[in-house]
Design goal:
The complex is a heterotetramer of chains A (192), B (180), C (496) and D (313). Chain B contains seven helices and four strands. Chain B is mainly α. Chain C folds into two domains: 240 residues, Rossmann fold; 141 residues, no CATH class. Helix content of chain C is 37%, strand content 18%. The longest helix of chain C is centred in the C-terminal third of the chain and has 79 residues. Chain C is elongated. Chain C starts with 9 loop residues before the first strand and ends with a helix. The longest helix of chain D has 24 residues. Chain D is globular, with a radius of gyration of 19 Å. Classes of the chains: A mainly alpha (192), B mainly alpha (180), C alpha/beta (496), D mainly alpha (313). At the C-D interface, strand 1, helix 6 and helix 9 of C face strand 1 and helix 1 of D. Strand 1 of chain C pairs parallel with strand 1 of chain D.
Amino acid sequence: MLNEYVLILVSTILVNNFVLVKFLGLCPFMGVSKKVDTAIGMGFATTFVLTLASLSSYVINKYILVPFEIEYLRTIAFIVTIAAVVGFTELVVNKTSPVLRQSLGIFLPLITTNCAVLGVALLNVTENSSLLASGLYGFGAAIGFSFVLVLFSALREKIEGADVPLPFKGAPIALITAGMMSIAFMGFIGLA
Amino acid sequence: MIEAIIVFSIFALLLGLVLGFSAKKFKVKGNPLVEQINSILPQTQCGQCTYAGCKPYAEAIAKGEAKINQCPPGGQEGVDALAELLNVDTLPLNEEHGETKPKHVVEIDEELCIGCTLCIQACPVDAILGASKVMTTVIASECTGCDLCIPVCPVDCIYLIDLKPSMDEYVPNMEKVTNV
Amino acid sequence: MSKHDFRGGVLIENPYPLNQLSVVEVPPPKKAIYLLKQREGASAKPKVKVGQKVKVGQVIAVSNNDYCVPMHSSISGVVSAIDDQPIAHSSGLKVPSISIESDGKDDWISLKGCGEEVDKCTPDEIIEKIRNAGIVGMGGAGFPAHVKIKGAQGAKTIIINATECDPATLCDDALMRKYPEEIIKGIEVLMYACQSQKAIIAVEEDKVDAIIKLNQTIKNKNICVEAVPIKYSTGAEKLLIKLLLDKVIPTGSFASSSGVLCQNIATVKAIYDAVVIGKPLVSRIVTVNGSALKNPSNYEVRIGSSFSDIVKKSKPSANPHEIRVGGMMMGVDVPDKNYSICKITSSIIVDEIKIKQKESACIRCSKCNEVCPINLLPQQLFWFCKSDNTKKASSYDLQDCIECGCCSYVCPSHIPLVEYFQYGKALVKKELREQELAAKSRERYEFKEFRLDRIKQERDKMMAEKKAALKAKMAKEKDNKAKIAEALKRVNDKKK
Amino acid sequence: MITGKPILNTSNLMLQVIYGLILGVALQFYFFGWGVIYQITLALITGIAAEIIFLKIRKKSIDVIKDNSAALTAILLAISIPSIAPWWIVVLGTSFAIIFGKQLYGGLGSNPLNPAMLGYAFLLISFPLEMTRWTSSFLSFGEGLNVIFSSINIDALSSATRLEEAKFALMEGEVFNPIQIDQTVWINLGFLFGGVYLFYKKVITWQIPLSFLAGIIVMSALLMLVDSDHAMGPVFHLFHGATMLGAFFILTDPVSSSTTPRGRLIFGFLIGILVIIIRTYGSYPDGVAFAVLLLNIAVPLIDYYSKPKVFGR
């Protein structure tokens, strides 16, 4: 049993990393990775949202959608839930850390449309996992996202000082670097 | 069908209630953004941005009314810093608002000054001393180089003085440093 | 000794050994130029006018600022100009100066010192004398000696720094050989002025003659000579304190706060002159050295003499030269010899022009980190200074760099690391300055807004009051008018 | 403390690393024949040509070619790939390594990832078949040419590496003797010797190789204890695969490795652990390349959080 949960975490964080292997959530990955501090903040916000969203979507699926046989509204229901969770997070961040809100900028509300969040919620349902497993799945995916986001932002801070050829400056070299990180993460294939 | 609509409406209503409640609970007063923007602006108070000073400009940026590239004294570096703070793409400095001039102060030719005090009123930082019909003078260390006093002077006795480079403020030239 | 050794540092052999170690005394020059600003900070204001006659030792410039000491004429003659002259500083800028043409007489002002019995003066009087003699740290930093001494009252230990701090500079060695008595007496004066019990003279272990001479001279059992290893950057104050006393002076605080006073040995000699004889600082020993010289030597020269005159005495070759002032490690390259000797000019190095090794990419081999006595990461600092990332550079403690140059010396890629760090530090300073200025203008702007607002409010209030008064008056008048009308009506009615 | 002016300069440093490789390469040649030499030659030509072309396009001085870093990258890549891989493999890999791994970031000193390992991982992912066909027999001058330049059937020549053999054997539950001196062991010893030379020449510091080997020993010993069905033991791991080449020549690439003394210990140790995990449970036979790349990514963070204590702070 415990083994299974560990496996879920290893799988979501490293082997099937949402950003580098499944290519989900690339928008905030590119957008909020200019500075380590911001990336850490975004990591926390996303972890919070993802865990909460996957838990609540599990509850909504099991206790509202299935009993009333309205599974065909699943996507809409999940999006509404996620939007609410993000709205809630935004309010909390506003209150607790205005600096973080500022540095996250538009990307905080944009977690709503982070495909990783909806992806996790939908995948959970199709895999028919338990409440704990879906929570862990969401949590692991978020940790994996935050982990590579922070690593990537530290790399980008360094690359900023490099003499990159002009056509590759900024986003292009960042994308290339992300691709190389993907190559490195291929090494985990087969682990879980 | 009806059932679905009802269930969904209740569901949405519940979420709305939660959000509304937390919006009340986590309410923030004021806009901390203005402070942050204002701290990047150079505080010359020159009004070249078309606002009455740095703070009004900061407020305008925060509201999204003004662009970030309207501050010539801050230079391109200032625009870049604003872009970074606001997490938007940087813009080239808008030349319509003027060019970035080297650091300078003004000086009043005390022989010509007629003591009209117009410049005193124009100075945004109270850096000009004097009274009606007596000689007027600029406190150089307080002058921001906004040049607002120059157009109001009726006898054109205010001049720009370039600040002399000093040993204390010397920044080596990067091209001199690198040896490639 | 070396059990307290600090980490890092490099062992550098002096590339230009001197043929002779005695000091060559140079007669007063024909013309001397005195730079009124010899370090960052305030500059002294001239106290003489063009055409005025001055004697040797006469005060020619003063300042109200306690961090700025007076300047004395080192020759007798006539003030010929007060203008800006270049200073041997990396900026290549000019600073205010006074030029004096000699009358060839070397006429001194009358000197009045405390004599050998120093305890006739109070410590405060001694400190005042040191200030009035214009004494600054002569090792290279030029920090006013009296400020340091005042801050170190009751210091447990006084360290006399005779470690040269540079492989090619030998002026302290020469000084110790020539003036051992004066130095020891100067140390006693310093100990008295600070009320300290102990003094250590730190001399590099290869200066055997100097150590013997000093030991022969010392009669006071509270003064001792310590031979320190000949490792470069030992001369840096905080590192020397670590080496001798095993004390680490925290970043941002002075040695005096840990009960230690550190003074350069040439400064001590100057203190002797000032206090015992009453002679202000008008001369110093300068090492003139380098591969282009036939006869490199130590010269005792008057402050304000020109570089080229002194270099000429060492018989330079006819080729164009590279000139470096202030030591081969921490000095600055200057374009020519048109400078004058400052109080802090310890050495002039004149080299044949070498092909400078081109800088190649930093491969982060971390050789620089291995030799950094402060344990910084020069490879990281370089990366961030180069890309103007002051925030990141500061997070790697750029401000702690003492610019000793060990990193540049060992860099296999020949990167002038220290120059990058000086650049980075200057940028940080500039940013701070701009922030300060902005904060000040902002405050004044906000005050003006507040003031205008207050005036407006007051005026509004006044206007309102006036209006009210007027209204009341008008109402009264109306009332009166009505009364008059009523009276008239009554009269008219009566008439009817 | 350094005595006198150090004689090393950057290009000399790189050259020393190349010298250090000689013994290991000679052993590879002794066992696998001319293929090794062809691969190195091809890689050198491609690598230097790619660098020159890129610099020409950027209108930069091609003097930097003299720093020998492109040559070193090319050689490291060439000796990592199978000596019987077709010619286009090494050409593709080297140009990818030089252009994407190094030049796009602005050349030597700016690349966040180890270019040689990037090229290797790129090849392994894209061409797994060609990249895992090793030979165990000596190829003569002509045979080598034939194998590399014409697409003849080379199945007869190829054989699995000991790492792969071990994995299969353990999977099938067969008996596998981990202590057996074969070609790979000799080659690893060759690189170990070269590493000692580099250490003697002060080209590399002790932290990375030692902590890496420690990581390998600790992790493989741990796996022996908890999961003996899959584990092969420390001795086997130390002398098989690219362990020694990695320890002294790949991990120690100063540009992409951690630069602080403490950071280097963390860097090496974590790579050691990852290598064992990937070798034991992963899909790829050896994990050095991936582990190095993964830790390269983490270097900026490691460096920042492992700053040495500054004097006076």
